[in-house]
Amino acid sequence: MSRILLQTTITAHPDDWDVTRFSLLADELRAAGHDVIARNRARRGDDPVLSHLDEWGFDQVWLMAVDTGDGLTDNEAEAIMRFRRGGGGVLTARDHQDLGCCLTKLGSLGQANAFADPSVDQSHLCDDQDTPTISWPNYHSGANGEYQPVFTLAPVHPLLRTAHTTSGQIEWFPAHPHEGAVVATGPCATAVAEGRSSASGRRFTLAVVLEGEMAPDGTPMGRAVAESTFHHFADYNWDLDCGAPSFVSEAPGTQIRQDPSRLVVFKDYVRNIADWLHHGARPGADEENLAHASLS
């Protein structure tokens, strides 16, 4: 069992992608036996948990980077990097364009996330033609509420394995009209799954893993996963009845509602991530302090 912090990079906001919109993910992790604390930022400025992440005894942090650029302070970013240097596992999930670009502060994990470069005209790369206000990177894998096919890269990574398909591989992810870009840079980064734009047919990376990194003192760092979009895990993308913030304007699809069986298989991916990130788990936290922090 892992002690997991499911954390967003914004303060509580009922009409945004705050942590209440990832409740099904939290439930799935708890059902797999993990101890999950789900929380938003407590305030602007240094957050009392994120800025001391390496001191709380979490094994993993699942960071939903739903901000527009100010989601992590320098002290918080340094604490997350200390957490990894101490063996903690980290998942990051961003979205289109510059959504979640605070992740660039996270060293090698930040380098696995590509964001818009205002000095370069990348308009020809935009897959989502229905929402012209969103610039690169955006990959149109399908409507919210639909599935997208997953193309696994050989050898198949443990994250993509399942006993619930004939192929033994997880074959479908929840889709999103404009996913962000993750890239495998450096010797410890590996792309493990690709998607395909339903608009252009272009392949793009869905997930990158980091494994085998060494801290400056020569000790192994914690494993990490960079996801192309947090919509792989959002309630709305698993169940349209959960609703979305009012600014979501794209018409949803109904594939998941009509055939939830493929979503059940995708949840093996969620469980696989938690198991894989648990490698090198850290010592437990003080229960009283941890409970207080979850309410901050």
TrEMBL record:
<protein>
    <recommendedName>
        <fullName>ThuA-like domain-containing protein</fullName>
    </recommendedName>
</protein>
